[in-house]
Amino acid sequence: MTGQRIRDLRKEKRLSQTELADVVHVSQQTITAWENDKAEPSSSAIAALADYFGVTTDYLLGRTPTPQFTAKEENDLQVILKNTINGLSNEAGLSYLKNGGIDLDDESAELMKDSLERALRRAQLLAKEGFTSKR
After folding, report:
1. CB–CB of 124/69 below 8 Å?
2. Where residue 14 sits, what CATH number does that domain have?
3. Is the same domain home to 47 and 79?
């Protein structure tokens, strides 16, 4: 997983393996070995890659699915998501949805959950970046 993420990030920046090797002070062969999961980057190389690509080390190591979130932040987000969904699923929430004329099938409920998760991720990223409303 680490190798694939390094490859994907390198390609997003349109870098050759040689160019990335220069950035993290290793050989092009080392980058190839990492990307093919034949070798694991050292902790200092992981830190350098994370800094260069603007992602967390947790993301590079496959601990989180989101490049900007640490494992703790990812866990916190999942707790918020679960609590929000549980709040919508309680008797009052279901009553509200039914009284509002909304009858969700399983697919629609899953789409709603995915949308909510994306919105929560975006809000958390904005909070991390120090977003303040201009209003």
Report:
1. yes
2. 1.10.260.40
3. no
Per-residue pLDDT for 99 more than 50?
no
Considering only CA atoms, which of 5, 133, 103, 117 is closest in space to residue 61?
5
Q: Cα(127)–Cα(132) distance, rounded to whole angstroms? A: 8
Cα 37-35-28 angle, rounded to 5 deg? 120
Find out whether 116 and 108 touch, Cβ atoms under 8 Å: no
Kindly state the tokens that stand for 22: 């220069």
How many distinct structural domains can be found in the chain? 2
Domain span at residue 31 reads 2-60
- pLDDT in the model for residue 105: 66
How far is residue 63 from each of residues 2, 19, 108, measured CA to CA in Å?
Answer: 10, 26, 29
Q: In this structure, what are the phi and psi dihedrals at residue 50, rounded to the nearest 5 degrees?
A: -60, -45
28 and 47 inside one domain: yes
Residue 75: other Cβ atoms inside 10 A:
12
Q: Give the mean model confidence (pLDDT) for residues 119-126.
A: 76
